[in-house]
C-alpha cells in the first residue's frame, strides 16, 4: 500500500527528482499520496530568471514553465517511495492544456496532479495550477519512468 504523507521539503524534492536550479520549479510539496496524487507549491517572485525576457514591462510566468512545474509535481508524486536513483522521469505529452489567468510575481502557484491511468512505466494524469483558488491552467499530461 502506498503511503500518504503531509509534505516534502525542498531537500526531499531534490533527493527525489533530478531537476536543479534554474529548472527546479517546485518549492515544496504540500501533500502527496505516493503514485496517485500530489500538491506542490511554487512561490513566484519578481527575481525569477525568466522574467528578464518575459516580459520586462509586464512580468508573466511563461505557460510552458507552468506546465513544466506541473510535470515536476507529477514526477515527484510518481517517484516518491521508490528508488528514484534507478528511474528517470520523461515528459510524454500534453493534452487539452488551457491557460485561464496570468501568473505574476507575488503569486503562490498551487500545482496539483492526479494519476488517471498507468500502464507499466507509462502514466497519464490530470493537472491543475491555481492561484488563491482561481484556476490558472488545466490539462492532462503523460510521462514515462524509464530505467537509468
Summarize the structure.
The chain is an alpha+beta fold and 148 residues long.
CATH fold naming: Thiol Ester Dehydrase, Chain A
Largest sheet: 7 strands, antiparallel
Low-confidence segments, given as residue ranges, are none
* Strand content range: 35-45%
The overall strand count is: 7
Overview of this protein structure:
By secondary structure, the chain is α+β, with helices and mostly antiparallel strands. The protein has a single domain (4-147), classed as Hotdog Thioesterase (Thiol Ester Dehydrase, Chain A, Roll). It is 16% helix and 43% strand. It has helices at residues 10-16, 63-79; strands at residues 4-5, 28-33, 37-43, 87-99, 108-119, 122-131, 134-147. It has a seven-stranded antiparallel sheet with strand order 1-2-3-5-6-7-4, with helices on one face. It is globular and about 45 Å long.
Summarize this structure as a short list of keywords or feature phrases:
Thiol Ester Dehydrase, Chain A, 148 residues, single chain, globular
Question: What is the topology?
Answer:
Layout: E1 4-5, H1 10-16, E2 28-33, E3 37-43, H2 63-79, E4 87-99, E5 108-119, E6 122-131, E7 134-147
Antiparallel strand pairs: 1-2, 2-3, 3-5, 4-7, 5-6, 6-7
